[in-house]
Amino acid sequence: MERLIAEDLLSIRAVFFRPDEPFTWASGIKSPVYCDNRLTLTAPKVRNDVENALAETIKKEYPECEVLMGTSTAGIAHAAITAHILGLPMGYVRSGSKDHGRQNQIEGKLEKGQKVVVVEDLISTGGSVIEVVNVLREAGAEVLGIVSIFTYGMQKGIDRLAAADVKNVSLTNFDVIADVAAETGYIKREDVERLIKFRNNPSDESWIG
Question: Which of 36, 75, 143, 185 has the fewest Cβ atoms within 10 angstroms?
């Protein structure tokens, strides 16, 4: 599954490698990779692979799941499609409470004690998805864990998830995608070491050039 999803993401450039012309993140950090898993929604075959893989992962890793909750906004569509496959209710968590109406932050019906799985598209440092987990826990949900399409595997993210006592299962990861990219000639084999060096310490720019 990891390789299939990696091949899918690369085929539509949802994961885009450019080690010789780095992207600049909002934080100012130079990155050899750009991720946009929203592109999976406009590629029917890839979308089908991703949503079925999410459904199978939830059935295997979180068999007690009662509700799916997507992260806003990237996780919403994936949560909805996967919930449809599994025949489960779904909702989503806003980045903040609405300033009108009932001022909801959680959209969709959620009962206290319900067992929830959070659907996320991408895990980097883990900060935003942990905020979602905390909102759900404060509302009385039992968060079984997270399912995500892709993870960088950054140590900061791993440490944050561990500190928050939340499990994450990703369909594929940075190492697998880098390896597949080298095998298919998308990047040079010698670039893989540079990519992993970035992943291990994004603030160290010695991999550039």
Answer: 185
Whether residue 102 contacts residue 125, with contact meaning beta carbons closer than 8 Å, is answered with no
The token pair at 21 is 């012309």
Question: What is the Cα–Cα distance from 172 to 129, expressed in whole angstroms?
Answer: 17
Nearest partner of 82 among 52, 45, 107, 60, judged by Cα: 52
Residues in a beta bridge with 167: none
Nearest to 7 by CA among 41, 50, 38: 50
Closest listed residue to residue 10, CA positions, set 196, 198, 178, 192? 178
Condensed to tens digits (0 to 9), the pLDDT of residues 2-49 reads: 999 999 999 999 999 999 999 998 778 899 999 999 999 999 999 999
Please give the Cα distance from 19 to 8 (Å, whole number).
Answer: 20
